[in-house]
Amino acid sequence: MMNTFKAFSILISVSAVVHLGYTNTFDPDDVVNATFTVGDQSGSHSERWTMIISGGPTDIRHQSEDYGVPGTDSYNFFRLGKSYSVTVDHAGTHSQYKASANDPDCEIEYRGSTWCNSPSPDYDYVARVQPQSVGFIIQDENTPALLGTSSGNETNEAAGKTARFGFPKPVVSFPDYTEEEVEGDPGVLVLVNDNDSNEDDEIDKDEPFANDPDYVEISLKLELEGMTVDKGTARLSANRNADLRVWDPADWSTPHNLPLEWDMATPEATSLQGSGKTLFIEALAPSDSHKDFTLTFEYTNDGTTSRDTELTLLKVDLEIEDEHFADNIMDTAETDEDLEQFIMARGSTLNPDPFEIT
User: Fold this and answer.
1) Hey, which bits of 122-232 come out as E strands?
2) Cut 0.85: pTM above it
3) What are the two backbone dihedrals, phi and then psi, of residue 161, each rounded to the nearest 5 degrees?
4) Sheet order of strands, 60-63 included
């Protein structure tokens, strides 16, 4: 059998909005929102802070609305597969707070606090980054951390520090083929491995071997510019787990069943970044109904889950009386209805040349 008949579609859908008059220039399907908080959360209510988020179409300067008040707002200038930097700048100390150094009677009040004998800033602040409903990663290796709370300090603990956050983008693809929007396309066609490709007089699914030509190659990747994904979990799953095996070319000795998970903190997961991880899928029995099998690849971390990427499969059992494919023409083929409709719909988009059904 040949695994010539393959196609795929990636399904992601999300709406995007524009915030504060800025224009977003990326694919709307990749846009994600994030919420930021910065300001003086302490009882003194004396400081004002600015959070600068860099890496998007323009720097975002998010500032607390007043002294002694944390400010929270959401922005949608972020996209899947990209990372951003965060810094926190001290924007000032209330003038009356500093003037209270000359007020021995403690008569200066502000937001319920009484100020007296306060000649210098106390640098209290809170700074938080919270992406909305999508898998994310934050790296803050500062000591003490930039993000979080800082209280009762005579020095500015945010000075000179940078944290990063990003949105890993799961991508699953078939390396030899590109996406085609064809009406009636059944998805990725996987031929049932019930032939004898290596001519050892055994059915291949019962006596599997490395690099069987009936295996279908897929590539898994977590895309993230500017950061390493070293936290969270990547997961490949299916809506049903029967009659499908997964092979890892790093070790052909043992097939795998779905779901498969990778701890991104382990060396085994490093191949999911960069050029991606290659796996092979094998069908053991035909589908029960049209497009009944869906693979899902997703990333989870800190209680959030990425927008997943899905691939729809159709497992087909192709019976061929004459297995010689001279000039890519199947002269004596008995196909099931789904396969024949697929070939007719695809026409010249099949590689390397069109097939004919006679």
Assistant:
1) 125-131, 137-139, 148-150, 163-166, 169-173, 188-191, 216-223
2) no
3) -105, 150
4) 60-63, 47-54, 83-93, 163-166, 137-139
